[in-house]
Amino acid sequence: MTRTTLRWGRWVGSAAIFAVLIWRLGTSPFLDGLRTIDARALVAAVLLTVLTTVCSAWRWKIVAGGLGVDLPLPAAVAAYYRSMFLNVTLPGGVVGDVHRGVSHGRDVSDVGRALWAVAWERFAGQIVQLVLTVVVLLVLPSPVHSFMPLVAIALVAAACCVGLAARRRPGAGRSAWAKLRRAVAGDIREVVLARRAWLGIALASALSVSGHTVTFLIAAQTAGVPAPASHLLPLALLVMLIMAVPSVGGWGPREGGTAWAFGAVGLGASRGVTTAVVYGVMVLVATLPGAGVLVVSWVRRIRAGARIQPRIGEKAEHA
């Protein structure tokens, strides 16, 4: 499957979800989401995103340091803001992550290892999010409550397998598969599960997930959802898992997932769409500092190029 097919698939998938929602619910839920959002919700989103971004950047710094590509925290925070802005404005949801990995790799002269650090950082964060979501969905009622014991058993079995794989020393085979197994097992053992790393990674990820969850709860309150936080918490975590589906800046799967989840617990699919729209706008506004980082990076690159060109001309004249 080519990149073009995947790109068009995301656009078509998001458009199809919107078409179904508009066909079934009309345009009112979307317009209500745009009308009900207010300055207090946007300010709260901006402040919470500062917390989640610093935590995510800290997680990235820990993982990168474990892989030998050190990264200062201020630079990590700026790059993470830029990454989030690109992720919510471009199709796929990973363009920003690839960009920050490549940029960091160029700074440390090791693009491959820097991209590997970004991949492990995102993977570790998603694993912590999955664990927290499963725990909450086991305890609190949700549309998938009856399936959660099986999911929890599968998750524990997978964790045991990963732990055994990390402790086991792979053979000294020369095939590409053997080299990949050695690299993955070594990274899990020495980076993700290292004594000084795993606690920081887990804490940073938990704080980041908490910040995103609170943002969703504020979005629901702004949309006028008449339900306590204890009822909305499992729905928020469930919807955030659905948001991981590749799409165009999260739009489409988020609205479809929220409509389904809210409808399944009697809160109304329309109110779910309104909440998703409010949340989407909050996230977009909160990541706008990333656009500033992107502009500053472009200006610096242009200025650096302008300084280099005269030097090249001088060398040519002397030659």
Your description of this structure?
With about 325 residues, the protein is mainly α. It has two domains: about 5-285, no CATH class; about 290-319. Helix content is about 80%, strand content about 0%. The protein has helices spanning about 5-25, 30-35, 40-65, 75-90, 95-110, 110-140, 150-165, 175-190, 200-220, 230-240, 255-265, 270-285, 290-319. It starts with a helix and ends with a helix. The mean pLDDT is about 85.
Estimated structural class: mainly alpha
Shape type: globular
Give the overall pLDDT as a whole number: 84
Share of helix, binned: over 70%
Number of helices: 13
Tally of domains: 2
Low-confidence sequence ranges? none
Number of DSSP-assigned strands? 0
User: Radius of gyration in whole Å, from Cα?
Assistant: 22 Å
Distance N to C terminus: 51 Å
Largest sheet: none
Q: Strand content of the residues, in percent? A: under 5%
What is the N-to-C succession of helices and strands? HHHHHHHHHHHHH
